[in-house]
Amino acid sequence: MCKPALTQIKPRRTDDAPSGDARCGDCPIRYRAVCAQCEGPELERLEQMKFYRSYQAGQPILWEGDRTEFVASVVTGVATLTHTLEDGRRQMVGLLLPSDFLGRPGRDRAAYDATAATDVVLCCFRRGPFDQMMRQTPQLAHRLLDMTLDDLDAAREWMLLLGRKTAREKIASFIAIIARRQAALHKQPAQGRIEMELPLTREAMADYLGLTIETVSRQITALRQDGVIEVRGKRGLVLPDYARLVEESGDDSDGGLPD
Amino acid sequence: MCKPALTQIKPRRTDDAPSGDARCGDCPIRYRAVCAQCEGPELERLEQMKFYRSYQAGQPILWEGDRTEFVASVVTGVATLTHTLEDGRRQMVGLLLPSDFLGRPGRDRAAYDATAATDVVLCCFRRGPFDQMMRQTPQLAHRLLDMTLDDLDAAREWMLLLGRKTAREKIASFIAIIARRQAALHKQPAQGRIEMELPLTREAMADYLGLTIETVSRQITALRQDGVIEVRGKRGLVLPDYARLVEESGDDSDGGLPD
DNA sequence: CGAGTGATTGATACACCTCAACACAGGTGG
DNA sequence: CCACCTGTGTTGAGGTGTATCAATCACTCG
């Protein structure tokens, strides 16, 4: 049905970033991440625990089945979660943008491959101490529950896309989701003319949408020819009219991923 | 891409079941539902709050956008969550079996349609009191977090199915999931010869798997002709060899839905 | 320059959808 | 009792959207 993954991840590794420089108070995701509702002594405790890690675009973060030593928040960049079948068919099952949470408390093995799609900085916590703190800190557990419920909603929206949308609608939906989340970063509503950057390669988009690279490429070409999008290089896009794109996506009420 | 939903839900309604008869101690899902880790006074408080509702097969439980007055655990039967696009394309996004939780704390509107696939009994809690209790009872919040994380894992497994599996693999995967969960109810591993009952119509299966009714029917016929399954009436199935079915499903390590 | 990677485009194949007819069981009413 | 209807599932013929296979292009890097 689709080609085995031939692409080899480059084996280069980034050393851990010099840890603990940044203060939580200055953190760009301070009020959106899992730590959002922690203050005072609790924030202090997290601050003590945390350490940063950086990954270059294309680097693996975790392999399915690996022991996980840490959980983490994405500070900057984009990471992906993918499932792989024995014969190499791959499906992306999660797209982690800044403030999203990576890892599952109470589970010591990764359920999916995690990969850096762009350069990524993670704010990590060792699993043991973090689990312990979660048991003692209700607002941390509540925040994580909220975020997980948002993830579940996003996953279900995504299932609708995978199961019932055409290739053209899938591409339009994907671009709309990215546009909305980039707009949300600047605290603006997505509307009118938008310039944006795709955070994924065509291959990763294909894995996200349950398509092949070729189909992704063809549909992008088609949307360009129909004036729905303009293409600027490999990753750059201009949306002359966001509403037009949403029309193409198959649903106006496009809920989509949590911001 | 697929036909608008023409099926009309029969307008018959069941009155609420005589509430509060059953004691939590006798509940068949006592140690698997959201209340599993509550004891003593907490269980007592839930017991006071709870009320039962019954729905006949085919009845709607909630419409997308409805105000939700309660959250609930499925006690017996099977319910479904579905998303619908304006043009009528439908995708099931959740399959709720006994002990699964319905509803989202902290949200007052339903995000999807919920429907009784078979006759269903729910153990309900009014939203306000339940939310309040969740804020005061860490083990309740933790249990719900755990269950939500399981749901998220299941949704992601499902995404792999929707995005990358063939029709035949989808059918085999679905049957395997149901077989495993039915086996789990009897606390047995799924293996060898299994007799089972499909809890869904062909239409609901199609909505689950992102297929059409016709394709579902054809693939079941094909699996029957290949000796992978035997068909007993509309809903009955015999699996001569569970392992053979799993082979057909595309993945041996078939994680799937939480039990 | 050549090698390598990511993306585009074209020709063809086929898996699944669409439309349509039919089978079968259960219920209802004359 | 049988004719009729309705809901559910099966089967067939044909069309189409996307995958597959393959060639080429644009860029970057050594």
TrEMBL record, chains A, B:
Gene Ontology MF annotations: DNA binding; DNA-binding transcription factor activity
What are the alphabetically sorted keywords of the record? DNA-binding, Transcription, Transcription regulation
- Ranges for domain HTH crp-type come to 165-243
Q: Which SMART domains match?
A: cNMP, HTH_CRP
Task: State the InterPro entries in the record.
Answer: cNMP-bd_dom (IPR000595), cNMP-bd_dom_sf (IPR018490), Env_Response_Regulators (IPR050397), HTH_CRP (IPR012318), RmlC-like_jellyroll (IPR014710), Tscrpt_reg_HTH_Crp-type_CS (IPR018335), WH-like_DNA-bd_sf (IPR036388), WH_DNA-bd_sf (IPR036390)
Pfam families from the entry? cNMP_binding, HTH_Crp_2
Which parts of the sequence are annotated with region: Disordered? Answer: 1-21
Q: Name one GO cellular component term.
A: cytosol
Check the record and name the PROSITE patterns matching this protein: HTH_CRP_1, HTH_CRP_2
Write down what this protein is called: Crp/Fnr family transcriptional regulator
